[in-house]
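RECORD CONTENTS
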Amino acid sequence: MITQTRLERLFLHFFDTHFIADKGRAIESPQLRDEMKIATRLAVACAEKVFIPAASYYESYLCRQILADLTEFLDLGIIGLAGNAINLEEYIRERQDETFYRKGSEQHSLYRTDQEATKFLPYVRRNRSATRDIGAHWDQCVADGSLAHRLRDAVDRPIPKLEARLERVPNELGSLAFIPAHVYEILDLCEASKLIQARIRSVINEGYFESYTKDLNAGVVVDLNYLASDFRIPSYGRDLSYNKMLRFVRGQDRLKELLSCEPVSLLRLADNPDWQIALSTAVTYVTQPEPVFDANLMLSSNPPSGISLIKNKDKTSMTISTPPNKSVPTTAVQVPSRSVLCVAAAQVEFDTVRAQLVSDFGNGTTKSLNGGKYYIVQFIDPHNGVHWHLAGQTFQGQVDAALTVGKIVEILRPSITLMVGMCMGMPKRKLEVGTVVVPNEVIAFDHQRHTSNGTEYRAHGDRVDNGLYRLARTMDTTGRAYKVVLDKGLASASIKIEARNSKLVEHIERSCPDAVVFDMESSGFYRAAEQSECLWVKAVADSGEAQGAANEEREQKHVVQTNVTKNALDFAIALVREYFIVEPLA
């Protein structure tokens, strides 16, 4: 018998006009609009309830256009608009007030049009205030310095009194909506670069989306392509993998049916047993992953529903209570509670890490995963009994990093996921070869636009502020044979650089002064590995020089790459050992 796997609640973030603004001219492409339509139809077919911010409905033509074909789902209450006003009539009236949206603004005009018919749409009143939640998130980002840091990295010249200007934003907004346009006015950044405005929008959207998902206990649609976010969408429920469900639909040759069928047929499609099996593999736990465990109760770091844990890093005790109508799965991979997934992208990195782990831990054992589609080499650290799983990539680059790491993390559910190896130092930063870098942010440059004026780059940044990074910052790095950099950024793109004066290198050094190193995998790694504590640890092997063609030059470079990878692994092992002995504060 197939267990019903339909998700409880999904929140559709991608209709938000400020989120869409980051897509630029891409919003005009049919591929992006098709992805919106497909993602929406997948959501209503896969979830019991789908929530859309009322603001998205009123302010986004695309949202209204796509929902026009799904009015039956609105009537059935499967799709609901959400806001914190008493009802839709009051919601519209609040936004017609000139103290909420500026008179003459596009938003103000939209709510001034005849909205009588829309006042009867299904509406869910929220308990939280999006404006207050955005303000709280803004204050946090100002207090920890991360917002100022991100803005400084986006400018060529300093912004005077930046911290003081950022602090005054919530107070100066007053009753105005906490939206990017109003913030640009307060900060005098209406004419600022697109990168600066995009980073402000990201901070606002993070707080805005979290306000909804937290209040509604909802998951989100992840693994989008044209609608991918430059920051992690906060989630408080089970998430739906767009790409996994899309692959299933395409494999069944049912994409045309999904896009054109009537709502009642869409519900029948979702009741199909094959669909339910596909959905069970497309559900992810991005924010609070539930671990895989087996009948022997070998647990990973987070307990599933029905299991209570009392633990520190070394000892675990448990009590088990199986909820009604829920059985304990017995077919999952048996994974120790203290385990590390270590990923090495290039072959020289994999060979070096493997040889060093054999030297430090003893011979490893090769294991197959997912029916032989993936392989790992398993070691046990005799120092603390922690299991290490070493995996490689078939190809270098973001895509293979995301696919390989994402799948192995899903299968193993490790306590820690690391990417270890070598990287390129940005030429002007002049880092010594062998310097180990643990970045505080990753900035991806894969989005390129080729124009008559040359190549334009749109950067997508993510802060690396998880617990493992914070632990790395507490470690004593003195007395090591190499330097360690812990407070700088990392640039990433699936491009192999062998020219110090390339346009991409010049652009990164000019636009992102805090990015001190470059690699080809980190952005994909962090997106795939965020289900567990994860960290990128690599050492500088060169500064973008072209690889020599002579055998002696190649052999010398191989020696350098091996030595710097050993530096990165040495720091990673020390970090892992520290992680598993740190005692919680009583």
Q: What stands out?
A: Residues 551-579 form the longest helix (29 residues). The longest strand covers residues 441-451.
